[in-house]
């Protein structure tokens, strides 16, 4: 095996998961991150059983299970009428069916578990404060160009540098991401600020015309994660801009007061304008491959972007031979394994946004009628293709 490391551009959830997976396979890895400090934004994230299958593969399953908050249900409410439409119970039958739980976790805690695994591995080197700009390759190695520094040579390059990946721009050249125009506002508040009648141990989705509200507990129930989304047809891609509460509240006059309370109780709101891309068929160029949002950015409506990045990491590690022989065919196998599944989740994320999160009138009535009639077992079967796998093999679930 060449003595050069495998380079990973980006130290987010996808990049660190890839580093864990490759190191467990015996490969030397160098992560190159632009930020001065490795970390994640202060917000929550939902993680399905498929992500837990990945944590197990990556050797951090127990550490992640210790950080997670185990909610009782995924609850769907009608934001206009405050009707309880349906709930997917996340109890023992759910866990038995999929072999792992559904949970929520603070992003920093998830990222922290992966980071500890990387720091503890003698095979992982973490470099911060270095912005990658592009690559060249010669058939036996890759040179990663870094802003203001000497190029770094590696055996392979995995680009986990997110939505605006410069590596993707060079490889695929499909321009900036598609701006959906949907604005998402996020806030994390102490439990004492959360209205008592909404302190549910559930990931709750209030679905309304062209808008929705999500809330769930984090940090053992000490805080609540709030997410408020509205179609404002914004054309500029914005990430994490602080905004006043008045902006968040605009356009929610038609929502039931019980749901609207969430907006009133939030503080320190930040704004994201959601972006995604069309699925693509090729994200490998010789010794360079994309991973996570760099490869298949999606809208948040399936709560699967990070889960897919971790599945990518598992697939990548699985495709690499322990001696690192024939890395180019290994990257082709990785892409082949991931292409259809990630495209399916990208496309479903848009559809779910339109038909479950944001429909109006007749479409909302159809949603309510279909979903009211679904039993837990119906949900298990509907979601088995997704939650029953770590992306390597279908049918990991223990079908009841
Ligand atoms: C509102 C919202 C809610 C979401 N909720 C969920 C959810 O509940 N569940 C879920 O699974 N997913 C969710 N997602 C999606 C999830 O956040 C992303 O899919 C996931 O973070 C992607 O991880 P990544 O590592 O591929 O990219 P990123 O998290 O974007 O990480 C990229 C890393 O690369 C670094 N980087 C970027 N450019 C460079 C460069 N030029 N040089 C060096 N480093 C660079 C960045 O600093 C960063 O550290 C949500 C997304 C949004 C917007």
Spatial strand arrangement across the major sheet: 5-4-13-14-15-12-17-16
Q: Count every helix, treating DSSP H or I runs of 4 or more residues as helices.
A: 12
Rg estimate, integer Å: 21 Å
* Helix share bin: 25-40%
Bound molecules: flavin-adenine dinucleotide
The amount of beta strand, in percent, is 25-35%
Mean pLDDT: 95
**Regions with little confidence, pLDDT below 50 for 5+ residues:** 395-400
The N- and C-terminal alpha carbons lie at a distance of: 45 Å
Rough outline: globular
User: Which structural class do you get from the secondary structure elements?
Assistant: alpha/beta
- What about the largest sheet? 8 strands, mixed
Strand tally is: 19
Protein topology:
Layout: E1 6-9, H1 13-24, E2 29-32, E3 44-47, H2 49-58, H3 61-67, E4 73-78, E5 84-89, H4 92-98, E6 103-106, H5 107-120, E7 124-127, E8 132-137, E9 142-146, E10 152-154, E11 156-159, H6 166-171, E12 178-190, E13 202-208, E14 211-218, E15 223-231, E16 239-242, H7 245-249, H8 257-265, E17 270-276, E18 284-285, E19 288-290, H9 305-319, H10 327-357, H11 361-372, H12 376-387
Parallel strand pairs: 1-2, 1-11, 2-7, 4-13, 11-19
Antiparallel strand pairs: 3-6, 4-5, 8-9, 9-10, 12-15, 12-17, 13-14, 14-15, 16-17, 18-19
The structure holds flavin-adenine dinucleotide (FAD).
Description:
There is one protein chain. This protein is an alpha/beta fold and 400 residues long. It is 35% helix and 26% strand. It is built from 12 helices and 19 strands. It has helices at 13-24, 49-58, 61-67, 92-98, 107-120, 166-171, 245-249, 257-265, 305-319, 327-357, 361-372, 376-387, and strands at 6-9, 29-32, 44-47, 73-78, 84-89, 103-106, 124-127, 132-137, 142-146, 152-154, 156-159, 178-190, 202-208, 211-218, 223-231, 239-242, 270-276, 284-285, 288-290. The strands form 4 sheets. An 8-stranded mixed sheet has the order 5-4-13-14-15-12-17-16, with helices on both faces. Strands 7-2-1-11-19-18 form a 6-stranded mixed sheet. Helix 1 (13-24) links the parallel strand 1 and strand 2 (29-32). Helix 1 runs parallel beside helix 5, helix 2 crosses helix 3 and helix 9 (305-319) packs antiparallel against helix 10 (327-357). It is globular, with a radius of gyration of 21 Å. The protein starts with 5 loop residues before the first strand and ends in a 13-residue tail after the last helix. The model is unreliable at 395-400 (pLDDT under 50). The structure holds flavin-adenine dinucleotide (FAD).
């Amino acid at each position: 095996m060449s003595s050069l490391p495998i380079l990973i551009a980006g130290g987010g959830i996808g990049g660190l998961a890839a580093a864990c997976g490759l190191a467990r396979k015996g490969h030397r890895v160098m992560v190159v991150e632009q930020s001065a400090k490795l970390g994640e934004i202060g917000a929550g994230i939902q993680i399905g059983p498929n992500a837990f299958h990945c944590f197990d593969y990556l050797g951090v399953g127990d550490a992640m299970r210790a950080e997670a908050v185990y909610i009782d249900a995924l609850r769907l409410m009608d934001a206009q009428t405050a009707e309880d439409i349906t709930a997917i119970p996340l109890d023992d039958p759910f866990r038995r069916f999929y072999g792992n739980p559904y949970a929520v976790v603070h992003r920093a805690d998830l990222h922290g578990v992966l980071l500890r695994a990387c720091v503890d591995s003698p095979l992982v080197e973490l470099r911060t404060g270095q912005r990658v700009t592009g690559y060249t390759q010669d058939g036996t190695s890759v040179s990663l160009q870094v802003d203001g520094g000497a190029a770094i040579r590696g055996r392979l390059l995995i680009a986990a540098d997110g939505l605006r990946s410069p590596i993707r721009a060079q490889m695929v050249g499909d321009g900036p991401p598609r701006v959906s125009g949907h604005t998402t506002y996020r806030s994390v508040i102490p439990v004492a600020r959360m209205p008592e009648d909404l302190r549910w141990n559930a990931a709750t989705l209030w679905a309304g015309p062209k808008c929705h509200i999500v809330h769930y507990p984090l940090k053992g129930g000490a805080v609540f994660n709030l997410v408020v989304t509205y179609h404002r047809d914004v054309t500029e891609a914005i990430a994490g801009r602080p905004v006043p509460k008045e902006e968040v509240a605009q356009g929610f006059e038609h929502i039931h007061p019980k749901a609207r309370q969430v907006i009133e109780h939030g503080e320190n709101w930040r704004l994201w304008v959601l972006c995604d891309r069309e699925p693509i068929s090729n994200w490998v160029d010789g010794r360079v491959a994309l991973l996570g949002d760099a490869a298949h950015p999606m809208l948040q409506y399936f709560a699967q972007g990070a889960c897919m990045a971790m599945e990518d990491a598992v697939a990548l590690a699985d495709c690499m031979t322990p001696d690192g022989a024939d890395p180019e065919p290994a990257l082709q196998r990785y892409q082949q394994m991931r292409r259809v599944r990630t495209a399916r989740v990208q496309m479903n994320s848009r559809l779910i946004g339109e038909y479950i999160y944001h429909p109006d009138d007749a479409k909302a009535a159809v949603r309510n009628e279909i979903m009211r009639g679904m039993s837990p077992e119906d949900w298990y079967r509907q979601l088995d293709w997704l939650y029953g796998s770590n992306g390597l093999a279908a049918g990991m679930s223990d079908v009841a």
